[in-house]
Amino acid sequence: MADGIRIPDEIRPVDGRFGSGPSKVRPEGVDALSAVSRTYMGTSHRQRTVKDQVARLRRSLAEFFAVPDGYEVVLSNGGTSAFWDAAAFGLIRDKAQFAEFGEFGAKFAKAATDAPFLADPTVHRAPGGQAAHLRAEPGVDVYASVQNETSTGVSVPVRRVAGADEGALLLTDATSGGGSLDVDLRETDVYYLAPQKALGSDGGIWLALMSPAAIERAFEIKGGGRYIPQFLDLVTAIEQSRLDQTYNTPALATVFLAAEQLEWMNAQGGLGWATKRCAESAAAIYGWADRSAYATPFVVDPGLRSNAVATIDFAAGVDAAAVAKVLRANGIVDTEPYRKLGRNQLRVALYPTVDPSDVEALTACIDYVVPRL
Description:
Layout lengths: L26 H9 L12 H17 L7 E6 L1 H12 L5 E5 L2 H12 L7 E4 L16 E5 L1 E2 L4 E2 L13 E5 L16 E4 L11 E6 L1 H12 L10 H9 L9 H17 L1 H22 L3 E3 L11 E6 L5 H10 L15 E5 L6 H14 L4
Parallel strand pairs: 2-3, 2-4, 4-7, 7-8
Antiparallel strand pairs: 1-9, 5-6, 8-9, 10-11, 11-12
Helix pairs in contact: 1-7, 2-7, 3-4, 7-8, 8-10
């Protein structure tokens, strides 16, 4: 046991997984996957057995997010990193504008900057713990922002850019916000997310809720003759999704577990239920940090504090890395901060799979560990 500290069983969380991605997977989902292991796993992704699960995933996503008329649920392989490149090839005509306030926004901006066929983007930046915002700019045909910055625990509302050129698209990175934070999809053209966050699944695919305008843009750009690698071709992803399949073999377990999680959340009350549950977890950890003598929320502005991922700074006299090490030795895992942020802090996922009572228990465990280090 790290530093010989053993946390009493009676104050530990029932489930000690607090990772921001891969996140906690519900045991019931794993049990359901095990039950179909002989009929689903290891079978052809072009046959009904798998296509039915893709259809279930798409249908459940549409229900959960109350997808507006004309919007389509599109999925493909590769995760959010692949989607950034796909969007650079298939959604940006010429010039994009980015709001960058963490690693996720920075990576998409870099993909557009590096694309030799695009104009240099405009990038509005803010330091970690703060938010950058989009603003209307002539000639910009794609605006892109992050709903929830996984690296820093900052979240911003999803809203269209007032005064933007007619036809300009808004792309919203909901990698970790989707499923934990409220959204009106009419305020964006592409709302894309990953299954290994709030959807309590594994990685390997990306999911996008696309407006008619975004779908039209993808077909327009491809029809204009731009070279697009097949793996990153959004038109291919759209057409294959309409058939409830992917261009190449998807991660079958990921598809199934995400569908299971969405059906569970829909049965609880959908997005409204999920956001309320995440807000309860957020109130527990931020309230504790506000009362603590040695911990404070990293995000100073309460209006920017995420209900999906909480980042908590520790006073100079408390080694957060040592706290995380003791927690891990006691079965409470993945509370370490984002590596590149380089702060003396813990980062805690507040996704719908995480019970608010376990977040409260986590804070009690931290209070037990700190004076004993």
